[in-house]
Amino acid sequence: MRIETTELADLLVLTPDPFHDERGLFTRTFDAELFDAFLGRPGYSAGFVQDSQSRSHLGVVRGMHGRSGRGEAKLVRCAHGAVHDVVVDIRPDSPTFGSRAEFRLDDSTFRHLFIPPGFLHGFQALTTIADVCYRIDRPHDPTEDLSTAFDDADLAIDWPLEVTAVSARDRSASSWADLEASLR
Known about the structure:
Elements: E1 2-5, E2 12-15, E3 19-21, E4 24-26, H1 32-39, E5 50-57, E6 61-67, E7 74-80, E8 82-89, E9 100-106, E10 112-115, E11 119-125, E12 129-136, E13 145-147, H2 168-171, H3 176-183
Antiparallel strand pairs: 1-2, 2-10, 3-4, 5-12, 6-11, 6-13, 7-10, 7-12, 8-9, 8-11
């Protein structure tokens, strides 16, 4: 597995190296020892406590979501299909505060993201079906939910497809300006 830094502070891209043969392929999607060594934090990965999966149809957008308080670290990958994945740094003391990065995650490269605490996250399904898997370091606490509108003009996310569906919660999310003001 290769681990790479990104233009956003502390956000990492993990890319497994699959073994292909006549049967198909095998890949290790996560290696705790390698991950912890890269971070220089032995045992850090043992803190992941919950795995979740979502299934979305073509054009669906989920996001932009985050957590207040201590935030939430997560590993995100697309196990089936492809998604356009977007993260926004919401850590007020970060050199990349307010910046965003966009990635394609899919079931052919097995690329996935390590998103540290203090980021908004969202994605759009690029295929008929897209299964996204999340491994997070804290149980979900709805009282800490943060969100910003997926179509906020200040964030100016250029979703690659027409948005076919979003949740009621995502449709009524606050603006980036309101969230930014509350974080400073």
